[in-house]
Amino acid sequence: MNDNIIKRNELLAGKVIKGLQSRNMSGYYAASKEEALSLALSLIPEGSSVTMGGGMSVHEIGLVKALSGGNYHFIDRDAYADKREAMLLAYDADVFLSSANAITEDGVLINIDGNANRVSAIAQGPRKVIMIVGMNKVCSDVDGAMKRARNVAAPINAQRFGLNTPCAKTGSCMNCKSPDTICCQFLITRYSKHADRIHVILVNDALGF
What we know:
Blueprint: H1 3-22, E1 26-30, H2 33-42, E2 49-52, H3 56-60, H4 63-68, E3 73-74, H5 83-89, E4 95-98, E5 102-104, E6 109-113, H6 117-123, E7 128-134, E8 138-139, H7 142-160, H8 166-170, E9 185-189, E10 198-203
Parallel strand pairs: 1-10, 2-3, 2-4, 4-7, 5-8, 7-10
Antiparallel strand pairs: 5-6, 6-9
């Protein structure tokens, strides 16, 4: 990665972390995927029950592999015949892992969900939420973050899941009411009521969508 981009990301991450702290959330900056993995594991005590939403970024830094092979109770919903059962277990988990569809420079988190299991767990339930967020997801403000979530993340995820939505065909949000839409629930996290609950690891990389 170009040195100028690295420096820019460091400076921007510092601004985002200050914003998160002002919103009763914890922020961290990782210079690499490896550093992000180490940071995440330092926040998860051994023996913890851990589950996650569908965050690709969590997989990309190797966190799922590390938890599956470590001394943790990792709840892998893909291993459950009844997905609802696995999703409900998330609400009483020690740690919930996720990413964000976008984050603003002053620390507001934007997430869009279809089944709402991810956004509902971010909002309430698990004792700790750890988000792995690539610097590619930082936007100037809430309006820009919402546009990114709807016009970048949602179309790519609709294509990834093989869904029959207008955005999967056009590549941008058509504000649809398709039965396949994954833009059902919008969560704007502007403040955490509980200190030390939401932890955001910003990674000097392009992660997820």
